[in-house]
Amino acid sequence: MKVIFVPKDKNIILKQFEDVANYYQTKIVPHDKGEGHFIFVRSRIMITEMIRNNELQIHVSGANDEDLNFLTSVWGDPISVIKEKRSPMDFAKEISEIPNIDQFDKIDIVTLLDITEADYSQYIGYLERVARRPNAAEEVIKAVQILKDKA
Questions:
Q1: What is the total count of domains within the chain?
Q2: To 5 degrees, how large is the angle CA 69–CA 71–CA 77?
């Protein structure tokens, strides 16, 4: 999910960034252009300081519920929480972890994963293309095998 915070005390923002970076065992990096900093966590989550409409905001991308709980303890309640689509790899992993998936049809999967039929078709198309590669991840190949007869 993507989350936006508006910190209450701008004077301690750097200290808060240091605390967050320590929590995620990473470091703070200054923006290349302009003021502000960002934190990048293991290709999973990115936290960046931005000025929008003359207001300091903290934008977080790739957050899960645990991240949201921690960051709320640092910056208070977010002004915006936007659910992001899962990545195709996350979709493949979720499909391969559903118990008794053979008993599900396309509609069951769409309902269970709370996606649209159009999203389902996009995921299938992407996974089928990726599965043809010689270095395709096992989760992708497994998901395509599971889903190929559920169209």
A1: 2
A2: 80
pLDDT tens for residues 73-111? Answer: 999 999 999 887 888 888 888 888 887 788 888 888 888
* Separation of alpha carbons 122 and 6, rounded Å: 35
Q: Do residues 88 and 127 make contact, with C-beta atoms less than 8 angstroms apart?
A: yes
The answer to whether the beta carbons of residues 58 and 7 sit under 8 Å apart is yes
pTM above 0.85, yes or no: no
Nearest to 137, CA basis, from 96, 105, 99, 104? 96
Q: Is 133 helix (H, G, I), strand (E, B) or coil?
A: coil
Domain that holds residue 69: 2-82
Question: Are residue 68 and residue 109 in the same domain, yes or no?
Answer: no
